[in-house]
Amino acid sequence: MVQNPKFTSVQTFSLVLMRLLIGWHFLYEGVIKLYSPSWTAKGYLLSATYMQSFFKWLASESMISIVDTLNIAALVLVGISLIIGFKTKWASIIGIGLLLMYYFAHPPFPGYPQGPSEGSYWLVNKNLIEAAALFVVFLFPTDFVFGIEKLFNRKKLQTSNPIN
Q1: Cα dihedral sign for 27, 137, 21, 85?
Q2: Rounded CA gap, 131 and 125, in Å?
Q3: Separation between Cα atoms, residue 37 and residue 33, nearest integer Å
Q4: pTM here?
Q5: Quick one: DSSP state of residue 119?
Q6: Interhelix angle for 88-105 vs 9-34, to 10°?
Q7: In terms of C-beta distances under 8 Å and separation of at least 24 residues, what long-range contacts does 147-151 make, across chains too?
Q8: In this predicted structure, what is the pLDDT of residue 162?
Q9: H helices within 36-162, ranges in order?
Q10: pLDDT at residue 18 above 80?
Q11: pLDDT at position 97, please?
């Protein structure tokens, strides 16, 4: 069994900082969409270049309001969770799922047209990089270092090991 190495304070700070920055990005994207009454994912989904039938189904009239609501709610909840350090493993999994959906709607695969992007990519784009960063957040329990989980963990330790 591999022992967990001790991390320096700089390494720990870097992991927490990455979690906070990703959380801010998710929260910002969710809030902007929430307060923009005309926002919808319909155009993005209909312009999908990969798995087109699945994304067109998500953009259908019967699904789009559910998809829009779930997208906004997931972005906001993942963002808040990552920022405050509460249930970050669940937030990371949900965030990775969202990012992979965005990635596969417009993947930077050879032979596929580039979707809405800020540059030219080949196989790797910002969505894939952020998903990989969230996987790192998932693997390292930074919420026990800086976050609400640290408070809960401290209380559990105090109640399970009372001082005589």
Answers
A1: positive
A2: 10
A3: 8
A4: 0.84
A5: S
A6: 60
A7: 147/84, 147/85, 147/86, 147/88, 148/84, 148/85, 148/86, 149/85, 149/86, 149/87, 149/88, 150/85
A8: 46
A9: 42-46, 52-58, 64-84, 88-105, 126-139, 148-160
A10: yes
A11: 97
Write out pLDDT tens, residues 88-128: 999 999 999 999 999 999 888 887 777 666 666 788 889 99
The pair of structure tokens assigned to 89 is 């493993």
Q: How far is CA 50 from the centre of its chain?
A: 21
Residue 154, pLDDT score: 64
The set of residues, in sequence order, having a beta carbon less than 8 Å from that of 161 and lying 6+ positions away, is: none
* 31 phi and psi angles, rounded to 5 deg: -65, -40
Task: Go through the chain and tell me how many residues it has.
Answer: 164
> pLDDT confidence of 12, banded at 50, 70, 90?
confident
- Residues 6 or more apart whose Cβ sits within 8 Å of residue 42: 59, 64, 68
